[in-house]
Amino acid sequence: MKCKDTFDVNLNEGDQSIMLTVKQSSDRSHGTSALSALIAQSAHVLTGSESDYDPLMDLIGDARFVLLGEASHGTHEFYRERALITQRLIAEKGFTAVAVEADWPDAYRVNRYVRHTLNTGGFYTDSDARQSLAGFKRFPAWMWRNKDVVDFVEWLRGYNDSLLSPMSKVGFYGLDLYSMFTSIEEVLHYLDKVDPAEARRARGRYACFDHYNKESQHYGYAAGLGLSASCEKEVVKQLKDLNAHAADYVKNDGGDAVDALFYAQQNARLVMHAEEYYRSMYKGHVSSWNLRDRHMTETLDALAKHLSEKNSEDQPAKIVVWAHNSHIGDARATEVGQLGEWNVGQLTRERYGKEAVLIGFSTYEGTVTAASDWDAPAERKRVRPALIGSFEAALHDSGVGNFMLPLDKENPLTKALSGRRLERAIGVIYRPETERQSHYFFSHVPQQFDAVVHFDRTRAVEPLEIASMWHTGEAPETFPVGV
To answer: Helix crossing, 232-244 with 196-206: angle to 10°?
Structure first.
């Protein structure tokens, strides 16, 4: 097989995929092509020094939204470096919120810890970062219950404690919508406190879900296929009523009433969107994907508006977003975008223009924490070397190692990379035996991101709770040759 800029090959399980990887390894030559030379010339090498990301800070400039990606949900370097970049954005550029690809109520528990604020019961609940992350129970728990996130959450708490003004404290928020039943409980808990009569009415509306034993997908299957009535009217009505009484609730509630109301409103809105999302799951992937990313973008917009209105200095809020590359890279530059998908990166660019900066992350090989199937145990898996012709392989062939690559539209490198090229994405599931079909798609990277941070060899993020599969799941160094 000759190396070329773009290609499409069907990889099957078994010997064919193993032979491809062996052939790829033997054919590769480092740093000899014109593209490799351009990458090497444009790369800002990462050495581990405090000044590593100076060029990235210049590129970001006065942007209000910095979206930091990841090529997998289980890579240590991605979490660590996003944290380092975020710390600089907070300390040097006045960013006051971190919004992550996580459920709203679970992340808000972390928010209370890092901001050292009372919960709706009027007391502090968590004594350290590990405890504050206890809400992340569902699969894949390792995405947020890992050692790198603990370190970052403790840094946030320490930074906030050092500030003189509570208005300057940095928050931690979730953008996702999977927590439908937890969010229902949070809405009811809020209403029990501020409006018991409305709480009783809300319980009556949300009782529509009682037959599903808090299983969102069971509801989606039954309602989506018309096997039972949907709860759409009930959840829409509940959000409208909550918003209609907002002024009274702020007036009557004690403590930080504005934040408490905002938290409840977002939970009610999440329930409305989650109900629609789970019904759509059985109608097609594009429909459910677009609903989810629309919700995350609208949550980001609502958060920006809320924080801006609270700012006594009348400055618009500046927010860092942590999510997978597939969410933060502009979907219009990918083959899935051509099929009708949109994502957070695209929608944020369309709304905020140059005030939004999209930064992707990549790796060539290493290990990753991932599962073999949905709801399966976390394993430490070996990541195969990137396929010949892929974007990751081009970065590797530069021979630079770890670096930040700006994708300036006037840079000759950007023009050289502008063609369609394979790009790898590993989510919470990694299936190396079907590497091409499961984890690659075509994209135009310079249109997808404003910059890319590359780590040539990476290692798996370490979960807080390590099952035996994580220790035993790592393949030997000879994988897949030695299999």
So the answer is: 160
